[in-house]
Amino acid sequence: MLDAIVTVVENRPLSGGHFVLSVRSPCQAQAARPGQFAMIRLLGHADVLLRRPMSIYDVRPGRNGNQAQPEPQVLDFLYKVVGRGTALMATLKPGDRVGLLAPLGHGFFAEDYLAEARGGDEVLHVAGGIGIAALLLPARELAAAGVKQRLFFGGRTHADLVGVDEFSPYVSETALATEDGSLGHHGYVTAPLSSYLEAQPGKRLLILACGPWAMLEATVSLARRYGQRCLVSMENRMGCALGVCLGCSIRVQGEGHGSYERVCTEGPVFWSEHVVWGEERLPKT
Amino acid sequence: MANGKVQIANVVHEPRTPNPEPQNRQSAIANRQSPTSEFAPGIDVTIAGVRFQNPVLTASGTFGYGQEFANIIDLNRLGGICVKGISADPMPGNPPPRIYETESGMLNAIGLQNVGAKRFLQEKLPFLRTLKARCVVNVFGYSTEDYVRCLETLNTGDGIDAYELNISCPNTRCGGIVYGSDPKLTEEVVTASKRAARFPLFVKLSPNVTDITVFARAAQEGGADALTLVNTFVGMAIDVETRTPRISNVTAGLSGPAIKPLALRLVHQAARAVHIPIIGIGGIASPEDALEFLIAGACAVQVGTANFYAPDTPIRVAEGIEDYCRRQRIHLDQLVGSLKLPLSDPSRVAEH
Ligand SMILES: Cc1cc2nc3c(=O)[nH]c(=O)nc-3n(C[C@H](O)[C@H](O)[C@H](O)COP(=O)(O)OP(=O)(O)OC[C@H]3O[C@@H](n4cnc5c(N)ncnc54)[C@H](O)[C@@H]3O)c2cc1C
Ligand SMILES: Cc1cc2nc3c(=O)[nH]c(=O)nc-3n(C[C@H](O)[C@H](O)[C@H](O)COP(=O)(O)O)c2cc1C
Ligand code: FES
């Protein structure tokens, strides 16, 4: 983990108030693992104090002058404008500087996750809205490991379903859902997920899910019903992402830190059965 | 600092010559520098016999147990580290959401989640002991017995330089706030804690009181070696769409640059009411912020919320204080309490 001031190389608008912010930082790009995140600090804005947590969407090779460099040089962040901080992010231009604390947290494949994926029949990615940003790097790593994959992706409307093309090389099939019915299934993404799980008796599946609390909760209860294991990438407000403010704690099973664990340090990826669902909802953005 | 303590009381009765000329202080500084060299200000400070290499500490709850920042900043350049509040027994803390960002500040209601005194000694103190930064252990409890029990456990620890008694956390339902908002209870818990404590005792006061000088004096009466001012201001925020509080605890403590002018006023007032040293805290994010507190009468400062978004702040602040002293050709102890008040200011009148 490194705390650096880095340079914006691109800030590309997509549909529905989404952007991809690209920054150059070879050390951080090379250290990043699938499922990890970064804290972005907007410099010179004393009224937007705290850094903003963002999943590491992608890491890419870059160029140094005319020289193409094969090692990752650039980090991409896929984000949606939802408030003051992200609105300021949207005004960043190539050459601007931002503070970048990265990479942070336990990613998807820090421990036994990859073994679990390899040992099963298929990995199902379940993304709600901007949650898709946490899943691209794991999808690429799993594809490289020869794992069969499928994407279930839901949003409020068609403009929320960004980044599907980037995913398509790694998944055999994609099911889309929108709450307004403007694209794919009309309703929640958990409906196509439920039908799929229903049609796969005897298969061993691993679900990787990232999205709003309600979607995660519904996904986890489906996983439980069909006896499949599920990894969730959680979001919570973050003060420091260094493990010291304890602002990001969520309730978990057992004794860990007095039954709370920090999303920034013990997470953001948890086995779904470790998280206590139900009574304590996390805030919506 | 020649006599080991910053004499803040002097400011009340006979204000020191503001900004004294260095040549008038020649005898005092002769032993610190040769007359030909560049002026090297002394920015170390000794509080209750504990020498801090510079007057900048990190605030409790914003710096963990120090080790979390070891890869980001040079911990040996800090004056001191105040660790997350420790209680006799481990505490689980409040349900989420626990924090919310406001304009130039943040609300928190963590609920004093901590590992407890025993695990602190086993798991956290050995690392802190290796640093040049002084280790100040923040302590809280729900009853006088809790405070005493926690101190007795911590007393066995090797490498603790001082205690900071938190009688002011606004985020636990029956917690320290009761002590912090009743001068009698303040004096009672400080007296009992002072008796139990093997190391110097700093007392951290709540800003959520009508008259800070009453509480500052009560803590002094109880035997506090120094005061830390201030903890967070109680506040709240509401999500108007859902008409629900932004924080599960409903009310929460406000910190960050937003509170600096409020905290500064309290330090200014308390410094004129007591003779024990004061450590100033509240919204410090730059050397200039810290200088304001020092000039108002704090002999040291703590940096809190700024650690979250700019962990190099305490080191930058210490460097900035040194630069300022060099430029002004004064030592830190000449700066402390050097506020030039207008002759008509009522706070020039002693409040004793
Ligand atoms: C591990 C993690 C990964 C994330 N990855 C992405 C991503 O890849 N793309 C993306 O668009 N968003 C992501 N988010 C959510 C993103 O951090 C918030 O949308 C963003 O902080 C909102 O900031 P704002 O100033 O625009 O909103 P405001 O509502 O003005 O923010 C107020 C405060 O609340 C915090 N906050 C608000 N919503 C969230 C939230 N959902 N999660 C965390 N903090 C929040 C902010 O940090 C800020 O301190 C992620 C969150 C986490 C915890
Ligand atoms: C997340 C958080 C946790 C805190 N925890 C403690 C604590 O355990 N004990 C304590 O005495 N103060 C605690 N504080 C208060 C700070 O030490 C400090 O007094 C306050 O934040 C004001 O300083 P600042 O504006 O520089 O942050 C906490 C503050 C924050 C923001
Ligand atoms: S964000 Fe501060 S502990 Fe996780």
Quote the beta fraction of chain B.
15-25%
- Tell me what the CATH architecture of chain B is: Alpha-Beta Barrel
**Can you tell me the residue ranges of chain A where pLDDT is under 50 for at least 5 consecutive residues?**
none
Strand percent estimate of chain A: 25-35%
Largest interface: A-B, 33 and 40 residues
Q: Give the N-to-C terminal Cα separation of chain A.
A: 26 Å
Number of strands of chain B: 16
From the helix content, strand content and strand pairing of chain B, which structural class follows? Answer: alpha/beta
Task: Give me the Rg of chain A, rounded.
Answer: 18 Å
Written overview of the protein:
The complex is a heterodimer of chains A (285) and B (352). Chain A is α/β, with parallel strands linked by helices and 285 residues long. Chain A folds into 2 domains: 2-104, Translation factors (Elongation Factor Tu (Ef-tu), domain 3, Beta Barrel), CATH 2.40.30; 110-235, Rossmann fold (3-Layer(aba) Sandwich), CATH 3.40.50.80. Chain A has 7 helices and 16 strands. Chain A has helices at residues 26-31, 84-89, 113-119, 136-144, 164-167, 190-198, 213-225; strands spanning 2-13, 18-24, 37-41, 52-55, 58-64, 67-80, 97-104, 122-128, 149-155, 173-178, 185-186, 205-210, 229-233, 249-251, 260-262, 269-271. In chain A, strands 4-3-7-1-2-6-5 form a 7-stranded antiparallel sheet. Chain A has a 7-stranded mixed sheet with strand order 11-10-9-8-12-13-16, with helices on both faces. Chain A has a two-stranded antiparallel sheet with strand order 14-15. In chain A, strand 5 and strand 6 (67-80) form a beta hairpin. In chain A, helix 6 packs parallel to helix 7. The longest helix of chain A is centred in the C-terminal third of the chain and has 13 residues, at 213-225. Chain A is globular and about 55 Å long. The model of chain A has no long low-confidence stretch (mean pLDDT 92). Chain B is α/β, with parallel strands linked by helices and 352 residues long. Chain B has one domain (6-335): TIM Barrel (Alpha-Beta Barrel), CATH 3.20.20.70. Chain B is 31% helix and 18% strand. Chain B contains 12 helices and 16 strands. Chain B has helices spanning 9-13, 26-29, 117-129, 144-154, 177-180, 183-196, 212-222, 260-271, 287-296, 306-309, 313-328, 332-335, and strands spanning 45-47, 50-52, 56-58, 80-86, 99-102, 105-108, 134-139, 162-166, 201-204, 226-229, 233-235, 238-239, 244-245, 252-255, 278-281, 300-303. In chain B, 55% of the residues are buried. The model of chain B is unreliable at 1-31 and 171-175 (pLDDT under 50). Chain A binds chain B through residues 1, 3, 41, 46-51, 99, 236-240, 242-251, 257-260, 279-280, 282-283, and chain B through 61-64, 68-69, 71-72, 84, 90-93, 95-101, 103-106, 108, 110, 113, 115, 239, 246, 248, 256-257, 285, 305, 307-311. Bound molecules: flavin-adenine dinucleotide (FAD), flavin mononucleotide and FE2/S2 (inorganic) cluster (FES).
